[in-house]
Design goal:
GTP Cyclohydrolase I, Chain A, domain 1; 5-stranded mixed sheet; GTP Cyclohydrolase I, domain 2; 2 domains; 227 residues; 7 strands
């Protein structure tokens, strides 16, 4: 590493120390560079593998060992194709809507949608459940598509509050209604596996829009989650 690169890295390290555990967000949209998708997935995979190999070597691991020699490439593929595939808009699920021909005007709730994400502050897992409700404005969405929307936004480096908002805004746009509610209850391994190492706590975030801002409607939704 060159001297100016080392100095820059040290400066960034000091800044990170000053920020500590603070969670700083500037937008509910995922912060991406303008050239984020100029590079093809294969090239990203190779570069990540190269740099992760460097990390493993810095840690003192012997990459000649049969168990470790393939790890850098496995990590590269996992980052691009799995854990962070939701960064690429080309992976956004296609959503088909259907006419609400049966005239169902009450809230529809899909709860206990399993989600796996990764904390953008430490790149360790966030594991939890999302609960979604909406009231149709004339269109309905296939139930599996709700799961796919959750998975798409979860497969990014995330902050739970942002993830909750992203799912809500996507559903509002797709369904053409403001009557959407999203609750996420998740365990953050940056809390349970490092730092304070609290294995008993979870984090709950919620976003209520349209009719769900009404206390009675919101309470009805929350009652369904307790069943």
């Amino acid at each position: 590493m060159k001297q100016n690169e080392t100095s820059s890295s040290i400066a960034e390290h000091h800044l990170a120390d000053e920020l500590g555990e603070e969670h700083i967000a500037t937008s509910w949209d995922t912060p991406l560079r303008a050239d984020a998708f100029d590079m093809e997935d294969e090239e990203k995979t190779v570069l990540i593998a190269y740099h992760f190999k460097e990390i493993m070597q810095i840690l003192g691991l012997d990459l000649n060992d049969d168990s470790l020699k393939g790890t850098p490439l496995r990590v590269g593929k996992m980052f691009v194709k799995e854990l962070f595939s939701g960064l690429d808009p080309r992976n956004k699920p296609d959503i088909a809507l259907f006419d609400n021909k049966y005239g169902y005007q009450q809230m529809l709730v899909e709860k206990n949608i399993i989600l796996y994400s990764n904390c953008e502050h430490h790149f360790v897992p966030i594991i939890g459940k999302a609960h979604i409700a909406y009231v149709s404005s004339g269109k309905v969405i296939g139930l599996s598509k709700l799961n796919r929307i959750v998975r798409y936004y979860a497969q990014r480096p995330q902050v739970q509050e942002r993830l909750t908002r992203q799912i809500t805004e996507e559903l509002k746009a797709v369904l053409g209604t403001d009557d959407v509610a999203v609750v996420i209850d998740a365990v953050h391994l940056c809390v349970s596996s490092r730092g304070i190492k609290d294995i008993s706590s979870s984090t709950v975030s919620a976003e209520y829009s349209g009719i769900f801002q009404n206390q009675a409607t919101r309470d009805e939704f929350l009652r369904y989650l307790d069943k």
